[in-house]
Amino acid sequence: MSETSDTTAAVPLLDELAWRGLLYQATEGAAAHLAEGQVRAYCGFDPTGASLHVGHLLPIMGLVRLQRAGHRPVALVGGGTGMIGDPSGKTAERQLNTREVVEANAAALREQLARFLDFEGPAAATMANNLDWLAPLDVLTFLRDVGKHFSVNVMLNRESVKSRLETGISYTEFSYVLLQAYDFVELRRRHGVTVQIGGSDQWGNMTAGTDLIRRMDGGQAHAITFPLLMTSAGTKFGKTEAGAVWLDPARTSPYQFYQFWLHTDDADVGKLLRYFTFLSRAEIEALDAATAARPHLREAQQALAEDVTTRVHGADAARVAREVSRLLFQKGDPRQLSAEALSALAAEMPFAEVAAPGEGLGAVDVAELFVQAGLVKSKGEARRLLEQGGLTVSGRKLSTAERTLAGEDLLAGGHLLLRKGARDYALVRVQG
Question: What reaction gets catalysed by this protein (predicted)?
């Protein structure tokens, strides 16, 4: 877990969540329970896909905040519940995955979750998989010991069920709440877990678990929820025109991830700094003031992008993303780009490899180079742009009088950065 500014340990957890706008609901007595000493708290993640996305970051950060407050987090991967799928927030039946797919997804999620938590020390985190206790259950035992505690009338009034009654909901998804509630029972028995955290859409499932613990074991447990995150425009957080923003760098590159946070609207950036970083209240309020006074500098967005990208992908990936971003959007000097940044650029823009001519770079047909890179359709178009001063190589503007390449145009790793106009880029690597 990376080191950042932190006041969490000095402030009661629910107070910390409250000033950040993260406390939506809590069961009665939750604050007193947390004040009694170290507790174990869990959050569940169903492996319905092979990667978590930024929408999962809020509960993940909730686990991290718990740990930084001295409590012990348990990250639960739903290898069992992932075979069914939570109907909450869904308007239609889920496509069921095979057991092999769910197991592969669960392994991927475990690896991602492990990057955020510390597994050593007095507040060591634990990983769990509910397949361990759900798979051995036989249906008669489950119906007798668990099902008898649930009223169908109450379940029919649950929002996740009521919203699906007209379109239809299978018994499989209807029974999901029983499985999640039973998870809480088993986690309390096996790991001493007494608190569950999650999004506000999970409140009914979570309180079903606290009630089941009381009914089955005569014990007490608590639930804490975070608000569902929407943008100021009323759209669901974490979605772009290209789709979900994933934590897996193979699905959403660190550069694209960095850009997602950098493009945060001024109206949302203060809230997201509170939700997704450990910057102190004073630091965030200073960034709020900077946004109001100097919005064009986007200081808060830069701090947000830097902090979250570092936490998810590491400091090196954040540095490379920052280099690439400054080049493309702040007209940075290409000669300052590191080899890692150039490699990242190759994945974000048109890329081509060309053989070095034996006569040297001066023999390269610049017009043909721009055609090969895909920036122009023909050599004729390239010549017209040369006459207009619209073609640049590695930061040097070309012209009809000066249209040959020179050794100083080569960047790290033998790359050439081509630009047409103000925004159209391509990267070329000269081989040999």
Answer: tRNA(Tyr) + L-tyrosine + ATP = L-tyrosyl-tRNA(Tyr) + AMP + diphosphate + H(+)
